[in-house]
Every structure is written in structure tokens, then in C-alpha cells.
Amino acid sequence: MAEENVIEPKTYRKGRPADRRWLALYLVCAAQLMIVLDGTIVNVALPAIQGSLGFSEAGLSWVVNAYLLTFGGFLLLGGRAGDLFGRRRVFAAGLALFTFASLLCGIAGSQGLLVAARALQGIGGAIIAPAALSIIITTFKEPKERARAMGIWAFVVSGGASIGVLLGGVLTQTMGWPWIFFVNGPVGLVALVLCRPLLAPDPKPDARGGFDLPGAFLVTASLVAAVYAIVGAATNPPAVSGILLLLSAGLMASFAVVERRSKAPLVPPGVFARSRNLTVSNVVMALAVVGMVGWFFFSALYLQRVLGYDSLGTGLAYLPATIALGVISQGPAARAVNRFGIKPTIIGGLGLMTLGLLLFARAPVGGSFLVDVLPGMLVLGVGAAFGFMAVILASTSGVPENEAGLASGLVNTSQQMGGALGLAALAAVAAAYTALIAGPGTVSALNAGYHAAFLAGAGCVLLGILFAAAGLRDVRPGDGPAEIPDHPLEHHRY
What we know:
494 residues; mainly alpha; Growth Hormone, Chain: A; 2 domains; 77% helix; globular; disordered N terminus; disordered C terminus
């Protein structure tokens, strides 16, 4: 089936085939940018949303986690859907759902509606992401072309998060927080219109083997129970948190049983055993994302609640990190993989991310942007550009095309699960440390809690380095799909 989805030159009757393939790449990257943006764009707007809808401190984290949880829980189902029903069909369906959910978020007048709409957004993103990545993998078959395409993709994935914080600040300050969601409307509609002319037609749908909805719901419910237990650990009785964690473990065990018995499991038995790099890179991705998501969440709070920045100032503060991510993803990161291999690039990139988090862990109450914020942002942004691109390449290198949707779903699932569980854990650490120091009412106590969260995030990224160093098989130029050219956009002409 994957072979039938490849965009061959004869697919296009007008224009140059290579041009159309790159336009298709930009289309799926635009859709991916929307869902990456919505993972972080709300961070700057959280105080405004809290003031408007009356969220509590604990409840506010659900505006972020509702999106991450459904995204992570349904990603594998989204990858399976693309392989069964056709990537263009599934990609377009995900776009329609995501655009509709974004409208609901913007008009939400209550806490419940906003959280529910964010969860629906997550499902739409879970449908889009694996279909988009597998379209790239099956469209660009030649290793160097695939590498150039992945260079652009990596910039969207790694840089989109920073762009989201910047855009969130601008929109919240100038037009109000609902516009961080309304902005998805025109982008989603234009992308829907362009799907048919730019993406290769799908073969006839073939849903033989079934569709594992029970598995998707079980893994999502397990994550929701775990996150609720972690977020409520400071306020709920210990027995309640313990019951929720046991429930989460039971649901995850049920998921494993369902997968063994399903005719079309979300995670086929033995998929990780067949590829050590796939296994290790998913663990590394989850750990690295804990640090990255924690940094976005708590650095935005530090800028606003400790240094007194407004929404626009907070968004603009992330501009240097965004530029660093963009510049490095488009050249130096690719050359680093070409020269040193995937494994050293991951270790070096995550090492810089760890250093950036440690720099934030010492930011004082009376800090300045140039001394206490900018250095950490630049170091962490540079590290993320190197690290995340290399982890994505490690997870997809050598994957058979008939498992492209599965592989892309797995790496995206690791990203979202790591983000959701990690943010819940870091928020609990920050709240507990703040209460231990002096109570949540003082700025110094808040800042101490943020320091604890940054340190915990740095520990997770460091653990990811250890896993990469011990478990990854290095891939260098000439070893297959992970090959990277010196210049990702070389030979790319319009």
C-alpha cells in the first residue's frame, strides 16, 4: 500500500514534478506547524485564560494536558488509519476536525467547554501528525531527498514550539486569547483546499484486519488517570492518588492484553524488538520532551509572574530561541549528522539542552533578560535544533514503508506522552517546593518552585543522554534513510 502512495513524476500533468512534491511537503509542514503551535501557543495566554474563565492553579494545567493526552493517546490509531484508509484521506479528515475544534476553543465560555475542545483538538492532531510524516517518508524515497525534506520537517517540529510562544504573546496582547485558536481557521481551510491538487491520490481503502479503537481508548484513559493522580497529588488524599495510579496501571495492562489479541493491534508484537534504534529513540524522545515542555511552561510563568512581563513581551522574549532553532535546523544540524553521525549529534544536542535548563534553574527574582534569560534560551534552542532532528532521524531510519505510519505514530506518541506526564510531574514538583519554601503567595517561593522544575527537567534530559549513549546504534552517511546532505535545500528550485 505504501508503494501506491508514493508521488511519482507521472502523477502530475502540469508543472515540474519536483516542484509539486516540494509544495506537497510545505502543505503537510503547514499542517504540522498548526498542531505543534497548539502545544505551546497557550502557555503565554494561560494567565489571561485563567482570569477570563476562573481556572484554579491546578485546573489551569488541564488546558495544556487535555491536548497532550488525547494527542498522545490517539496517535497510534491515527498512524494505523493512514496505513489502512490512505494518507491523503486521513490527513484531510484530521485537518477538518482540528480546524473545527479550534473554532470551539475560541468561542468557549466555560472551563469545561475549553478543556473538551482542547481534547478534540488533540484527536485531530493525532490524526494529522502520523499521516503527514508518512506522506513525507513515502514521497521522498531517495535518501538525500528524504534527508532534505526531513531537515525542513525537523525545523517545523523543533522551531514550531518556540514560534507558538511568540505568536501566543502577540495574539493575546493585541487581539485577546481566543485568537490563539481562531488563527487556525484560515490556515486549516486553505490546507484542506490544497490537499487534492498537491497530494498523491490514495488507493482503494482496505480496512481488512479491523481498527483497534479499544486499544486507543485504553491507553488514553491510562494516561488521563496517571496525569490526574500526579496533578492532584498535592491536594487529593494520598489514597485517591494511589487508587488513580493503580487504575492507570490496570488500564495499561489491559491495553497490553488487547494488543496481543487484536487482529490489527496499534503496536504489533515485536515491533520494538525488530529495531533497537526505534526503541531507544522513543525513550530518548519522551525524556527530552519533558525538559522542553517544562521549559516552555515554566519559563513563560517566570517571565510573567516573576519578572512582570506582559503577554507580548513574553512572546517576543522567545524570538532569539526561535531564530536559533530555524537557522541551525536548516544547515548546521544536517552537517553535524553527516559528519559525526546521529548518536553523537543527539548526545551533544541534549547536553546543550541540559545546560540551558540548568541556567534557568539559577535565574533570580530580580533577573534581567540579557543576563538571566537570553543565555539559557539560546543554549537550549541550539541544543534542541541538533537533538530533536537527530532523534527523529534515528526513529525513522531503516523503517519499512508499510510501517511508516506506525513508526511516525510511535515517535509522536512518545513526544506527547512524555510532554503530558512530564508536565504534570514538573508542575507537581514546582507546587510542592513552593509550598515547602514559603507558600504560593510570594514571588520568591514561586521562583523557587520554578527552579525545582527546571532542575527536574534537566535530570530527565540527562537520563535521555545516558539512554542514547548506551543503547543507540549510530547511523552515518551511507547507512540508509538517515543520510543527510550538507545543505538540506540543495537542488531545491522553483
